[in-house]
User: Which sequence fits this backbone?
């Protein structure tokens, strides 16, 4: 399933999807693409800043995975605080180097 923070935080989604035992039983991963956006946009798109509330509605056995190619250290620390206060969130930082000469 691919969706947006606005849908994830909607009452209809909570009632029809997150209370569905079959859905929760089949859920194997929650992935947040562009994790930095969740932090940076939270000031003008409230749903992005509320993703941590979703964590409390998902079984603890389901891992969360966040990605970002442009996550700066300040935003990473903010994301760690927001997610860590909500049922645990494991962070793994990987560095990938981009080659500009076209040789990989």
Assistant:
């Amino acid at each position: 399933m691919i969706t947006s923070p606005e849908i994830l935080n909607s009452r209809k989604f909570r009632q029809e999807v997150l209370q569905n035992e079959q859905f929760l039983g089949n859920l194997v991963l929650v992935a947040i693409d562009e994790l930095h956006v969740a932090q940076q946009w939270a000031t003008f798109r409230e749903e992005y800043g509320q993703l941590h509330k979703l964590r409390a509605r998902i079984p603890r056995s389901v891992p969360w995975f966040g990605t970002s190619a442009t996550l700066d250290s300040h935003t990473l620390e903010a994301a760690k605080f927001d997610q860590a206060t909500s049922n645990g969130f494991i962070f793994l930082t990987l560095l990938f180097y981009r080659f500009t000469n076209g040789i990989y």
